[in-house]
Amino acid sequence: MAISEDRDFHEVVSDSEIKIMDCTIRDGGLMNNHLFNDETVKAVYDACVTSGIDYMEIGYKNTTRIFSPSDYGAWKFCREEDIRRIVGENDTHLKLSAMADAEKSDYRDILPKDKSVLDMIRVAAYIHQVPLALDMIKDAHDKGYETAINLMAVSVIEIDDLDKTLELLASSEVTIIYIVDSYGALLPRQTRSIMKKFLYHAESAGKQIGIHAHNNRQLALANTLEAINLKANILDASMAGCGRGAGNCQMELLMSFLHNPKYRLRPVLECIQYHIEPLRDKLLWGYDIPYMMTGHLNIHPGVAMQFNLGRDKGNIVKLFNLLGRGEGG
Amino acid sequence: MAISEDRDFHEVVSDSEIKIMDCTIRDGGLMNNHLFNDETVKAVYDACVTSGIDYMEIGYKNTTRIFSPSDYGAWKFCREEDIRRIVGENDTHLKLSAMADAEKSDYRDILPKDKSVLDMIRVAAYIHQVPLALDMIKDAHDKGYETAINLMAVSVIEIDDLDKTLELLASSEVTIIYIVDSYGALLPRQTRSIMKKFLYHAESAGKQIGIHAHNNRQLALANTLEAINLKANILDASMAGCGRGAGNCQMELLMSFLHNPKYRLRPVLECIQYHIEPLRDKLLWGYDIPYMMTGHLNIHPGVAMQFNLGRDKGNIVKLFNLLGRGEGG
To answer: Is B278 on the interface with A (CB under 8 A)?
Structure first.
């Protein structure tokens, strides 16, 4: 199948098919065990509503059999009563999503859609978890939700495996297939190649394509732009980039790029100024050189997160040596 | 003339034609009136030598008739004795450059090459200054230097003006023509369009193309990568991005992308850790939302620099309103 041409620039900025998903609480929560207070979650929700953002992912739908509620905040589990405490009946245009991690969720915890204010279940899966993810997607689909799959760590997937997996996903119930650059390793030209593969399988099957980027190499926006050029329509971003490690594509950068009349930037800036930036010293997300190193090495950011929490924080030369990248000089 | 194909990825990483220019002191000095102490300048110089960087721009060659030596450090003027205090005879592979600003320099201050350790004179000019810049280039060329022109604020140049200017430059003595995104406004696809224009005029005239990016929209690396794809060979970067406003393309990001065997990352990391990061609180360079706003508006970062020095620093909503981007909500 031929891949259609790059999107035209004016098509991009006015395209009503483009949708933004806010991940601030869900992904940022990976930096504080989702121990946000209600005021913060409400502020992000209100900013999403006011700014015209299309979806908000409010947290994970993970199981208490693996994660203890005494160690984690409400947004690790997204119980219906917790969500409603923030959003009421969510009588707004904003759609709400929760992420179900393959192997860390129990789909018996997911209510039928008519009992929930959630609109979407996104299943996150590494490639070896895709068979399980397909079961989870079918369950959520049958319960009445929009469904998406986040194909994690796409930068380490073998090309043949990717083809086979995309074939499987194209024939599943899922409506959105996400490129997820978990390690923040992708370069724009690699994103382009991967997008072409996604398009090849997904477009004729009527699936939408999304992208979720991390900023380890300061390429989260650039990779998102490249995906948009090739007609990715569902774009993940976080307020001030708040997310695991180097963080996500920044909402403010993405929204100012799009300058689509359906979005308004000021509520995003207000939320960042009054609610997100004050958390930075505690959550410690955002680009730095340790995260650059894990991105460049195409590995999970966990080692950089640990390093930044330890007494050697700032000793980038030591981390460089620890990661085994020592050179002669 | 047809434009040659994009560079192949493996060609990029092994390409010995690619050269890196360090701008830490020259561009970073715009944040502290070039009041660096000798230890810092020497540390950057040593890191450039040890890491295999090809050029170091050590400062400006500006005139004391405009800038008072009591207000500015030595690197605003780059007197020969100041340079030699740091580099001696510079008996290394590293080439040294100084920037001569059109209308802020006096070319009588530039010594004949055989009296100087400088190897290159880069002339910085906005488009209306190009006629003057051509005189300056001829002078530096005739004195025996390599010459480059930095065509500033390329994001606001009218397309017809750009064509005419590039024609002039193609027939001049200059050997390197630089795309300079002074406002950090360019998107990668715009960089691509502009690069094609540069290539069209420069390639057959035997000129090299360089790029100097700013990071207002976190696209400095992405724009540099796009220029590399289209065979830009001279790449500006700064240690930790140290440069005016949002800063430049980060040396550490660029070098880890290139992973060309002629470069070594550790000396760069050492320089950053021990000499550059300790300056951040004073120099205040680096991406933030005020710089994002000026980049998005395609204006000079001066207003954001002033804002960040004032008592309203952090009040991004106020700046958004001041910049006249108020919206209904």
So the answer is: no
Q: State the best of A273, A307, A315, A323 to mutate against chain B, taking most chain B CBs within 10 Å.
A: A273
Same domain, B164 and B107: yes
Q: Is the pLDDT confidence value at A179 over 60? A: yes
B155 and B218 co-located in one domain? yes
Sign of the dihedral through C-alpha B214, B217, B221, B227: negative
Name the pairing type of β-strands B234-237 and A55-60.
unpaired
Please check the confidence at residue B262 and state whether its pLDDT lies above 50: yes
Confidence band (pLDDT; 50, 70, 90) for A259? Answer: confident
pLDDT at residue A5, as a whole number: 65
pLDDT at A221 over 90: yes
List C-alpha distances in Å: A286 to A142, A251, B208, B211: 38, 13, 36, 26
Determine, yes or no, domain membership for B2: no
Which contiguous run of DSSP H or E holds residue B208? strand B208-212
Q: B217 and chain A: CB distance < 8 Å anywhere?
A: yes
- The whole-angstrom separation of Cα A327 and Cα A314 is 20
Shared domain for B169 and B310, answered yes or no, is no
Give me the domain span that covers residue A130.
9-283
In a domain, A2, yes or no: no
Residues B217-226: what's their mean pLDDT? 98
B-chain CB neighbours of A249 within 8 Å are none
Q: Chain B contacts of A221, Cβ < 8 Å?
A: 217-219, 222
Using the CB atoms, write b or e for B97-110: b if 16+ within 10 Å.
Answer: bbbbbbbbbebebb
Residues in chain B within 8 Å Cβ distance of A219: 221-222
Torsion (CA) B174, B176, B181, B186 in degrees, nearest 10: 120
**Do B100 and B182 fall into the same domain?**
yes
- Which pLDDT band holds residue A329 (cuts at 50, 70, 90)? very low
Best interface-test mutation with A: which of B214, B287, B294, B317 has the largest number of A CBs within 10 A? Answer: B317
Residue A205 has pLDDT above 50, yes or no: yes
In this structure, of A109-118, A291-300, B320-329, the range with the lowest mean pLDDT score is B320-329
User: Are residues B107 and B83 part of one domain?
Assistant: yes
Is residue A133 assigned to a domain? yes
The answer as to whether B327 is a domain residue is: no
Domain count along chain A: 2
The verdict on B184 and B317 lying in the same domain is no
Over residues B149-184, the pLDDT tens digits come to: 999 999 999 988 999 999 999 999 999 999 999 999
- Predicted confidence at residue B2, as pLDDT, reads 43
A138 and A39 belong to one structural domain:
yes
pTM: 0.95
Same domain, B242 and B184: yes
- Asked if residue A22 lies in contact with residue A237, where contact means CB atoms within 8 angstroms, the answer is yes
